[in-house]
Structure formats: C-alpha cells, structure tokens
C-alpha cells in the first residue's frame, strides 16, 4: 500500500471517528434535553399534587371543625346550656 493510500485511509478513518463522536455528542445532548423536560414535568406535577393535597386537607379540617361545633351545640342543647 502506498503512502498516499495510507494517508487517504487514515483521513477517512479520522473523518469517520469525528462523525461518530459528533453523533454521540448529539445523542447525549438530546438525552439530556429529554431528561430535563421529564424533570420539569415531574416537578410541575409534584407541585400540582401538593396544592391539591393542601386544599383537600384544608377542606377536611373545615369539615371536622364544623362537625365538632355541631356536636358541641347538640350537647349544650341537650344539657340546656344553650339558653341565655
């Protein structure tokens, strides 16, 4: 094999290596973008679930408070303590 042919083959191998390296970088970058998007989506869903849970807890707390107030009023009425 001549020196010129060896240089040509080496140049082709280097070009192929660089193309493969660039393709790997592009794939890694795309994977990182997808991971970031998934993280953002998960964070947003987590925040929505947190707000929903907070609202549910507040609603449940109000219901318990109202039930306790009703029970207290019933006991006062039964004992005749509700009259002034």
TrEMBL record:
<feature type="compositionally biased region" description="Low complexity">
    <location>
        <begin position="22"/>
        <end position="38"/>
    </location>
</feature>
<dbReference type="InterPro" id="IPR039624">
    <property type="entry name" value="LEA1/2/D7/KIN2"/>
</dbReference>
<feature type="region of interest" description="Disordered">
    <location>
        <begin position="1"/>
        <end position="58"/>
    </location>
</feature>
<feature type="compositionally biased region" description="Low complexity">
    <location>
        <begin position="1"/>
        <end position="15"/>
    </location>
</feature>
<protein>
    <submittedName>
        <fullName>Late embryogenesis abundant protein 1</fullName>
    </submittedName>
</protein>
């Amino acid at each position: 094999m001549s020196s010129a042919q060896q240089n040509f083959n080496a140049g082709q191998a280097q070009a192929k290596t660089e193309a493969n390296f660039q393709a790997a970088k592009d794939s890694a970058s795309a994977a990182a973008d997808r991971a970031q998007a998934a993280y953002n989506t998960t964070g947003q869903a987590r925040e929505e679930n947190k707000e929903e849970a907070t609202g549910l807890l507040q609603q449940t707390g109000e219901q318990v408070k109202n039930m306790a107030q009703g029970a207290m009023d019933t006991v006062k009425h039964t004992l005749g303590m509700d009259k002034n």
